[in-house]
Amino acid sequence: QVQLVESGGGLVQAGGSLRLSCAASGSIFSINAMGWYRQAPGKQRELVARITSGGSTNYADSVKGRFTISRDNAKNTVYLQMNSLKPEDTAVYYCMLETIAADYWGQGTQVTVSS
Prior knowledge:
It is a single chain. This protein is an all-beta fold. The protein has no helices and eleven strands. The strands form two sheets. Strands 2, 4, 5, 6, 9, 10 and 11 form a seven-stranded mixed beta sheet that branches. The chain has a four-stranded antiparallel beta sheet with strand order 1-3-8-7, with no helix packed on it. The N and C termini lie far apart (40 Å).
């Protein structure tokens, strides 16, 4: 059983910052990558940022230069530093773990950016 526990969401004013964390635990084998996705009301879930086990990263165009993804391989933890937040960043943010066997999702954490 694999569990992903997210933390760090909340309410922030536009221009502010938040840091999300996601810790994976359980029977985890051969991690390919970890990432963050988000889903705003009435919209499809979209990739925000992803980092491979080798450290390669990719970002959605809308967050490039503002968000930074990082990971601690020893702790199976991934972070998302979000700066210069905008109201359009408001969404539920989900952590995702990619392994050779399956993909796993966290329960989601709400991020709300007020204007």
